[in-house]
Automatic annotation (TrEMBL):
Protein localization: Cytoplasm
InterPro entries according to UniProt: Thymidate_synth/dCMP_Mease, Thymidate_synth/dCMP_Mease_dom, Thymidate_synth/dCMP_Mease_sf, Thymidylate_synthase, Thymidylate_synthase_AS
Family label: Belongs to the thymidylate synthase family. Bacterial-type ThyA subfamily.
Organism, as annotated: Filifactor villosus
Name of the protein this chain belongs to: Thymidylate synthase
CDD domains according to UniProt: TS_Pyrimidine_HMase
Listed GO biological process terms: methylation
Reaction equations catalysed: dUMP + (6R)-5,10-methylene-5,6,7,8-tetrahydrofolate = 7,8-dihydrofolate + dTMP
Keywords: Cytoplasm, Methyltransferase, Nucleotide biosynthesis, Transferase
PROSITE patterns documented for this protein: THYMIDYLATE_SYNTHASE (PS00091)
Molecular-function annotations in GO: thymidylate synthase activity
Predominant cellular place of this UniProt entry's protein: cytoplasm
Length: 277
């Protein structure tokens, strides 16, 4: 198994055997049929991956749509938009449609719209170039002024911290909430790809990727699928690589054809997970 597989199994086992739950409590999310979607969860989960040692955080216990995951990062940090039309027409991604706000064809003043409003991406890139050893290289998508302006899902992957050491760029992703069997693996791929892009744009090599999840949970209707994943073996450790294979250095010119995934042969079949909205 890869390091990500082992951590996934350990986390799911801990949630199911030692975690808390929301059964009987009032919860916000619901399934499509209107039933409240309850979770089993633990708080304060920390993971570390050294990209220089080949510790790429991809799950091989089931197939992950890694290209679509990276395309969503383009939508947020390159296009800097909240438009569902852009997401569908440019990238053929539809999973955000359930979070459309009031028939606006947007997800509200969130994610890419927040990046654009506060010029967060350019500030990060300029800061890393001008003062690489600064300790203020942070992108924060959790802006209360934006939440008050429109409805919309509050950002889950909400903050990144960036630091330089000896020619390497380390990054920490902070999430307030993570649906472990569904979005957790996707988010790690996305933000590792973003780390590769930023490192390339500022003339550094990717270093450590760290991931802090405040609330890591499994929905009640996902438990059977999780138990099946726990029986799978996955691939041999550390043979999977994501490579940004390009001479480009302009952050806004990277595209999906610049990324290569080597050695990825996940266990099949894939599994179905009902969304909680």
């Amino acid at each position: 198994m890869t390091k990500a597989d082992r951590m996934f199994k350990d986390l799911c086992t801990k949630i199911l055997t030692q975690g808390s739950h929301t059964l009987g409590e009032k919860v916000r999310p619901k399934y499509a049929d209107g039933t409240p979607s309850h979770t089993y969860f633990i708080n304060q989960v920390w993971e570390e991956y050294d990209l220089q040692k080949g510790e790429f955080p991809i799950l091989t216990l089931r197939p992950i749509a890694w290209k679509s995951a990276i395309k969503e990062i383009f939508w947020i940090y390159q296009d800097q938009t909240n438009s569902l039309d852009v997401l569908e027409e440019k990238y053929d991604i539809h999973w955000w449609n359930d979070w459309e706000v009031e028939a606006t064809r947007t997800i509200g003043q969130r994610y890419g719209a927040t990046v654009k409003r506060y010029d967060l991406m350019n500030k990060l890139l300029d800061g890393l170039k001008e003062q690489p050893y600064g300790r203020r290289h942070i992108i924060n998508l959790y802006q209360y002024g934006d939440f008050e302006e429109t409805g919309g899902l509050f950002p889950c992957a909400m903050e990144t911290h960036w630091n330089v050491r000896q020619g390497l760029l380390d990054m920490t992703l902070i999430q307030r909430s993570s649906d472990v069997p569904v979005a957790n693996a996707i988010n790690k791929i996305q933000y590792t790809a973003l780390q590769l892009m930023v490192a390339k744009a500022v003339g550094l090599e990717p270093g450590r990727f760290c991931h802090l999840v405040q609330n890591a949970h499994i929905y009640d209707r996902h438990i059977d699928a999780v138990q099946e994943l726990l029986l799978r073996e996955g691939q041999e450790a550390d043979q999977v690589r994501l490579i940004l294979d390009t001479d480009k250095t302009d952050f806004y010119r990277f595209d999906i054809d610049d990324f290569k995934m080597e050695g990825y042969e996940p266990d099949r079949p894939n599994l179905s997970f009902e969304l909680a909205i």
